[in-house]
Amino acid sequence: MLLEAHRWTGKEALEEGIVDMVADPEHMLDVALDLAKRWAPKARMGVYGLLRAELWGEALQKFQSISHVHGRQTSSPAKAKL
Fold first, then answer.
1. 52 assigned to some structural domain
2. In the prediction, which pLDDT does 10 show?
3. Range of 38's domain?
């Protein structure tokens, strides 16, 4: 569906589980801030790095093994543990 550039309405995206909430345009910022405040206590540093390593880790290791610049780290390791 994504490769076909399918567009969902807010209601369709909510029903399909693509989004967690929908809001009218005039209330979007308030809803987003409320959601951010609810999740803020669970936030951890370095989660992006952990997710990146999980998604691309094996491919990065393979590319580094054939790279002409051996031993050079181009991204920092993940700081978080889930």
1. yes
2. 92
3. 10-42
